[in-house]
TrEMBL record:
Taxon lineage: Bacteria, Pseudomonadati, Pseudomonadota, Alphaproteobacteria, Hyphomicrobiales
Family annotation (Gene3D superfamilies): 3.10.20.30
Cofactor: [2Fe-2S] cluster
Identification of the protein by name: 2Fe-2S ferredoxin
InterPro entries (alphabetical): 2Fe-2S_ferredoxin-like_sf, 2Fe-2S_ferredoxin-type, Adrenodoxin-like, Adrenodoxin_Fe-S_BS, Beta-grasp_dom_sf
Family named by the database record: Belongs to the adrenodoxin/putidaredoxin family.
Length: 106
């Protein structure tokens, strides 16, 4: 199991433990994380699972694919740390990952 922490706008931290091979979006949905809508269910065809990767994790997580970058155009308040959580696969190297949930989804 890999620990993923979601930080809400008010600073509340929601810690989850999910199996490797799932996605950060699935971790959010399985644990009822507010603010992660995931309308397309992880197909990378919407931008409603947008998160900001914590500074300490940006390099480890890596950047978005071209397809993900195209979908991020529909997200609200995109930054260099923006990712679609459906595109981040959970693996051992991400144990302890921290992502921030935006104030609203696109």
């Amino acid at each position: 199991m890999t620990k993923i922490t979601f930080v809400q706008q008010d600073g509340e931290r929601i810690e989850t433990n999910v199996p490797n091979g799932s996605t950060v979006m699935e971790a959010a949905i399985m644990n009822g994380v507010p603010g992660i809508v995931a309308e397309c269910g992880g197909a990378c065809t919407c931008a409603t699972c947008h998160v900001y990767v914590d500074d300490a994790w940006v390099e480890t997580v890596g950047g978005p694919s071209n397809m993900e970058e195209d979908m991020l155009d529909f997200a609200f308040d995109v930054t260099a740390k923006s990712r679609l959580s459906c595109q981040i696969k959970v693996k051992d190297a991400l144990d302890g990952l921290v992502v921030h949930v935006p104030s609203r989804q696109g």
